[in-house]
Amino acid sequence: MRNILIIGAGRSSSSLIKYLLDKSSQENLHITIGDVSLESAQSKINNHKNATAIQLDVFNADERANAIQKADIVISMLPASFHIEVAKDCITYEKHMVTASYISDEMKALDEEAKTKGLVFMNEIGLDPGIDHMSAMQIIDRIKDQGGKMLLFESFCGGLVAPESDTNLWNYKFTWNPRNVVLAGQGGASMFIQEGTYKYIPYHKLFRRTEFMTINGSGKFEAYANRDSLKYRSIYGLEDIKTMYRGTIRKVGFSRAWNVFVQLGMTDDSYTIEDSENMSYRDFTNLFLAYSPTDSVELKFRSYAKIDQDDLMWDKFLELDIFNPNKKVGLKNATPAQILQKILMDSWTLEKDDKDMIVMHHIFGYQYKEDKFQIESSMVIKGDDQTYTAMAKTVGLPVAMATVRILNGDITTPGVQLPINKEVYEPILKELEDYGINFVEKEVPYLGYNPESVKG
């Protein structure tokens, strides 16, 4: 049998593992799942005859090398920073590798060796990055093949809570790593280009510069800019495009309220707070407000954030219980961001019967002969339950499908890569439709501006 090694059995691996187990007899596969928690790995395979669970500490070089040597292909579902040691072993033992993470500089440096050894190192083949690349390139290639010239490309994605599980005033719950949500947008200005003009949004302004969109009967959404949209011009072959913008989707009103945390400094992860363990939620909130011998924490917070008495945003903060003097932080030497994450997890953790939702929305503007056209392409996916979430499906299924295709010799181009070639994206997007993951496409009037007459 052909052996697939999956390293990491976290939440996003459930649909990936189920897909491979369902295909295992037909495709002659044996799936080995290695995780630092043997119990977690065992729970994912449910005593399946074509699967083995092993305890695997990725930082133990001998354990890691031993497991990789026995595999025909390796899937790393570890945090992105942990992939590189796995990748180096895959080079050494000449194994193909698949990840859902962005290509790091360290991973990119392995490209020549992977090509020399004929190895496929497929990265960025989850949801975002992943399905976003494939669905975008499918339409971009089609427009180009028909003689069109791309003028505008905007792409948005968000992991949200399904409407029937939307039970808080923020219209948001954690559907993936909470830390990444708290730290979103940090590390430099967001960069994009609109109508030929470069735009930069510094972190402290990011959540007040939002785009709005209505998507396929699913309601109105907002989006804030991702860190670097400019690099996708060369990746997608759109070096001359006038508008390139990528953003993260939230329900309307989220960003305005989140901006209060940013302005106060509660999302800062660069220093630790003295005696954070014994601090109350109220104490934590008060850290970032000026001293007053008379004004309450609530009044100071309202004043700083300029929240009027009839502003519905105030109720969002009350709901989070950030003024509670009795709830303790309970984290030693914690950063503000870590404490804020702890507070938010009280309110934003998915309940047992909650379902998540993924929303992805692309806008393509192009010129054909003398006329200009615009296409909107949208995907809205709901999770089945807490195991087979929308996030797990949209991250895990493309990874699994690419893995089987590499094993079967359908994907052969060697090297460190992302799924922007037709040999990769066409069959995977087609198969994803069998799992209810599909895009609704419609033509709309071209809404871009004339760069010759409008200066923005």
Automatic annotation (TrEMBL):
Residues 126-437 form the Saccharopine dehydrogenase-like C-terminal domain. GO terms for molecular function: saccharopine dehydrogenase activity. One of its GO terms (biological process) is lysine biosynthetic process via aminoadipic acid. GO terms for cellular component: cytoplasm. Pfam families: Sacchrp_dh_C (PF16653), Sacchrp_dh_NADP (PF03435). The keyword Oxidoreductase applies. Residues 4-122 form the Saccharopine dehydrogenase NADP binding domain. Keywords: Oxidoreductase. This is Saccharopine dehydrogenase-like NADP-dependent oxidoreductase.
